[in-house]
Amino acid sequence: MPIRDYYGNEYYAHIEEVRKDYPRAYFVWMKEDEKTLRFMANYGATVEMMAGVLQRQESAIVSRLEKLGLDTFKLSPPKKSYVVLYSAFDGKTEIFSRATNVLSSDELVDEAVRKALPRLTLYLVDDKLQMFEIIRQPGWSLKRVN
User: pTM value?
Assistant: First the structure.
């Protein structure tokens, strides 16, 4: 007999359906995920942005923030937020660097492309919650992810 959730849906089918939109949903939280979550929360990222970057449901983000003792009421959209992330071959995501008032997004991407190992995939997340993969070639270009 299959395991059913509160609404009578088969549990594993439900997880598969959720993972279509949130690939990391229901996986154990890794220390790297929590580190990224803390950084983004302290920097002022929205729950929606954190969910997109960590590929988890917004409710999971709020629950983990509360478990970590971080105040979810202070979360507000960042005024200027360019966060470059990299995803290693093992699927872990960490903060690489972020733009400040000194660096533009182009300068930030230039720096990331210069410093990051070639085997890493780089992403740029902007203040409008758009995520772009940074395509390395002679120079670089952006490919929208979401």
Answer: 0.53
